[in-house]
Amino acid sequence: METELWAIEEELSITGKYLFSSMIKQDTALADIFVSLRKELLLSDTLDYGKLSACRHANGRDWWVILPAFNSNLYYRYLLTPSGIDLVGVQEIGEAVPTGLGQALFSPDGTKHIRFNGISEQAGEFTTIYDFDRCTGLLSNFLQFNYPIGGSGGGAFISKNARYLYTSSTTTLYQYDLWAEDIEATRTLVADYDGHLDPLPTTFFQGQLAPDGKIYIASNNGVTSLHVIHNPDADCPDCRIEQHGIELPTFNAFSIPNQPNYRLGPIDGSPCDTLGIDNIPLARWRYEQDTLEPFLVQFYDLSDYEPAEWLWDFGDGSTSTDTLPQHTFPGYGTYEVCLTVSNANGSGTQCKELEFTMPNSTAEEKQEVVAATAFPNPFRERFSLSLRPGWLPVDAWLEVYDAVGRQVHRQPLRAGVNSVELSGQPGGVYVWRVVQKGQVLGVGKIVKW
C-alpha cells in the first residue's frame, strides 16, 4: 500500500492511497520462487493505513481481506482464492471510525473484527468491535468505545482462546472480556507503564499473538525489548504481564508482525462448508516449571482445528482431561508427556520428553551436555538464558562472573528461557556458568555494551 500525509483538524495523519497485489509462485520441481505478478493496482482511495486484516473463509481454504476507508465506516471486502483476489463489495456499517495509529485484526476464531485507533490526548482512543460472518465476509453489531486518555497511538491483540481483548495506548494496557454480554463493562486496567528507559521509554504500542500462545508488545520508541503477556487466555492478573521481558539483539521501533490465524479451519456443517475440508485437530502444547517446587509443572494447550476432547499422559501413570492441567512428577527421571486431542473428525498427538535429571557423574558425560544458550550477545541491560529443550532443572543455578573472576550475579534456573538482569554492572566481558549440585553443566561468555 502506498501512503500520503494529511493534515486534518490540525492533526497530522497517514493515509493509504493505493492498494496493490503481487503474486509469488514456487516451482516445486526446481524449488525456485519467483514473482509472477507485480504490483497490480486493486484500489485507489483514501484508506486507513495499517488496518488491512485477513481471515480464512468458512470453507477452510479461501481468505477474506478487509480494508477500511479513512475516517469512515466503509469497508472494502476482498476474497482471495486460488484464482486470484477480487473485490466482493463495499460495506457501510455503524458510525464513522476516526483514523489514528493502531491496529485492525480478527479474533483467532474468526468471529470478531477489532479496529483500534489512537488519535490524540484530546480526542483519545477508539476501540471498534464487530461480529464477523466468515461465509459472507460481512460485519455486524457495531460497537465503539471512546476514552480520552492514554495519548496517541496504540494497538489491539486477542488471546488464543478468543475471549480476551487487550488494548494499549502508550502508558496503559487494558483487558476486555469479548464473551461478556456487556463488553465495555469488563474494561479493566491491567498495567501502567513502569517508567523503564532503554534508553527511550519502553511504552506500549502494537502487539501480536505468537505461536507459543503468548502476546508480545512493541514500543513506540526505538528500544531493545518487548513486553510479554505470558498467559493471555486468563483473566488478569493471572494473565501475567511482564514489561520489557524480552531482550532484543537490536533496536526496534513500532514494528511487530501482522499475522492472521493460518490454522483456522472451516465451519463444519455451515452452508459454505462446500470443499470437503475437515477440522482434524492438531495437538500442540507448552509447559512452565514452578519456580519454588521444581517437580510441579503447569501445562498449556495450544492445539488447533477445534479439538473437543483432551487427554494428557504424563508418562508416570497419571493422566488428565483438563486443557490446562498442573502436575507434580514423582521425582528425578525422564518422562514422555503426550497430549492427544480429538473431535468427531479425528485426533492428533504431540509428545515431548521432560527430564528431571541428576548431574552426570563422569568427565566424558559432562562434555556431552549443552545446558544453555545465552542471547542476545552483546546485550544492553539484560540477556536471556535458554535451557536445553526438555530439561527441567532441580537445584540448578546461574552464576555470572566479571573479567577478573568476581561473582556479580547468581539466580536459580527453571525450564525454558530465564531472564538475567545485569543493569547495575559496567560494560565488558562476562562469563556465565550453569551449576547443578556443584557440577558445572555449561559455560559461556557474553558481552555487555
TrEMBL record:
<dbReference type="InterPro" id="IPR022409">
    <property type="entry name" value="PKD/Chitinase_dom"/>
</dbReference>
<dbReference type="InterPro" id="IPR035986">
    <property type="entry name" value="PKD_dom_sf"/>
</dbReference>
<dbReference type="InterPro" id="IPR013783">
    <property type="entry name" value="Ig-like_fold"/>
</dbReference>
<dbReference type="Pfam" id="PF18911">
    <property type="entry name" value="PKD_4"/>
</dbReference>
<protein>
    <recommendedName>
        <fullName>PKD domain-containing protein</fullName>
    </recommendedName>
</protein>
<feature type="domain" description="PKD">
    <location>
        <begin position="280"/>
        <end position="349"/>
    </location>
</feature>
<dbReference type="InterPro" id="IPR000601">
    <property type="entry name" value="PKD_dom"/>
</dbReference>
<dbReference type="InterPro" id="IPR011044">
    <property type="entry name" value="Quino_amine_DH_bsu"/>
</dbReference>
